[in-house]
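User: Can you help me understand a structure? I only have the sequence.
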Amino acid sequence: MNAKPAQKNARDPVPVVASSSDNYVVHVERLTFEMVREARAMYDVYGPLANPANVASIARALIPDDGREHFGVLTLDTKLNVLRYHEVAIGTNRTVATAPPSVFGPVLRTLGADGLVLVHNHPTGDPSPSRDDLRLTRDLARGAEILGLQLHDHIIIGSGTERFVSLSAIRNQWEGRPE
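Assistant: Let's start by predicting it. Here is the structure, written out as tokens:
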């Protein structure tokens, strides 16, 4: 029996070569990650986050007022200094979809990360949290706890206004509530 190379399917993640003895040799590429500290971002934040108004001010500088919802995460160290900002998702004028892996992945890949603050905007200018905002905050708080991270707050800013809501200030509305 002659050995023939197996046909490569476009969806095969790795090349496969058939041998003459019904055994297969699989060539697997090694994937590695390096953690690199990047240069300071365009928005310098000096000192620890002091209060929700401070976070709302930072969120206004980071989130564009373009008529769409933007959801981001500020990664913090143990002294509440901002290590990094990651824009998790951009939505429509009414909603933004996100999931825990999209939020926690960047946090877990940040050297020195101990906690996080969620930030997003409401293009209408009304920062009142929706039921989905409250549910997402509750679910992400549970996920953060499992991962050994501290979810310090979720700030919703009203685009084009100075208004904001700190969900840590209204924790009783989302914490421990059933679905």
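Now, to help you interpret it: The domain at 52-173 is CATH 3.40.140.10 (Cytidine Deaminase; domain 2). Residues 134 and 174 are 5 Å apart (CA to CA). Let me know which part you'd like to focus on.
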